[in-house]
Design a protein that fits this description.
326 residues; alpha/beta; eight-stranded parallel β-sheet; 12 strands; 36% helix; globular
Length: 326
């Protein structure tokens, strides 16, 4: 698989990564055997950029990744995140970005992953009660100590990104980006490109919606968190289905799946953009990885812009957007 470089500090990753969140929580029942098989198949296909966070599970996703990469550390680039505080019970305790917590969180992630360093360490959500300079200053100490190689932010606003980057180079900014989440094009992408920061696109398949596999909210397991997201409810769901049907028609014309076309679109947004589609099944991983072979013409890109223009999706990305640093 093609490789891409995030930021200007030399972090090289696979052009497409693997989001591992759903292997432990949020998208129905977990199957550890299938999840580990999926990670191993990803490495065989050259998908070496693995994305997790301490809150996934909580904590169980990092342990899963640790088991999957045991003895293969040199083959992977591991990205994890801190900041969304949870107990083992799953209870949420808010967001923390203070220096003490940064250090505690990193040590916990290293222990669960079974590694001596984290390749890319993100602040998962910005703590609005703590200056970003304090948070990134503490993260920079981790780099100096060798516990972390590169720093990242997730869902941060342009001013926050600039202030963070002034403290220590930020290698990557991770935010949702897909054919139905294009708001980053206005300010976020121009900012990170000006600063030579890479962009990691999470949910590049619109939380699976752009795959075309879902036609009703009843298609989701009872404990699937998508049932509570505005875009998957009522009239918004029906309106968003129309967007998917337009993508499906274009995909059929190219002889690819809707998901592959959606991923190819994200990949085509620039060599500084790395999508991390999440899956917990080998078959879907293989389908997603094949999207790197899909080449889009200018006509294809123009047709997709018309089918899914910025702002076309109905509903907010989350039920509560208050934690997003905008």
């Amino acid at each position: 698989m093609e490789r891409r470089t995030l930021g200007s500090q030399g972090l090289e990753v696979s052009a497409q990564g693997l989001g591992c969140m759903g292997m432990s929580e949020f998208y129905g029942a977990a199957d550890e055997g299938e999840a580990i098989a999926t990670i191993h198949r990803a490495l065989e296909l050259g998908v070496t950029f693995l994305d997790t966070a301490d809150m996934y599970g909580p904590f169980t996703n990092e342990r899963l990744i640790g088991r999957a990469i045991a003895g293969r550390r040199d083959e992977v680039q591991v990205a994890t995140k801190f900041g969304n505080v949870r107990l083992e019970s799953g209870e949420r305790l808010g967001i923390r970005g203070d220096a003490t917590y940064v250090r505690e969180a990193c040590d916990g992630s290293l222990r669960r992953l079974g590694v001596d360093h984290i390749d890319l360490y993100y602040q998962h959500r910005v703590d609005k009660a703590v200056p970003i300079e304090e948070t990134v200053g503490a993260m920079a100490e981790l780099v100096r100590e060798g516990k972390v190689r590169h720093l990242g932010l997730s869902e941060a606003a342009p001013d926050t990104i600039r202030r963070a980057h002034a403290v220590h180079p930020i290698t990557a900014l991770q935010t949702e980006f897909s054919l139905w989440s294009r708001d980053v094009e206005a300010e976020i992408l121009p900012t990170v490109r000006e600063l030579e920061i890479g962009f990691v696109a999470y949910s590049p398949l619109g939380r699976g919606f752009l795959s075309g596999r879902y036609t009703s909210v009843e298609d989701f397991p009872p404990d699937d968190f998508r049932r509570g997201l505005p875009r998957f409810q009522g009239p918004a769901f029906e309106q968003n289905l129309e967007l998917v049907r337009r993508v499906e028609a274009l995909a059929a014309g190219k002889g690819v799946t809707p998901g592959q076309l959606a991923l190819a679109w994200v990949l085509a947004q620039g060599d500084d953009v790395v999508p991390i589609p999440g899956t917990k099944r080998v078959a879907y991983l293989e389908e997603n990885a094949a999207a790197t072979e899909v080449k889009l013409t200018e006509d294809d890109l123009r047709a997709l812009d018309e089918a899914a223009p910025a702002g076309a999706a109905a509903g907010e990305r989350y039920a509560d957007m208050s934690s997003i640093d905008r």
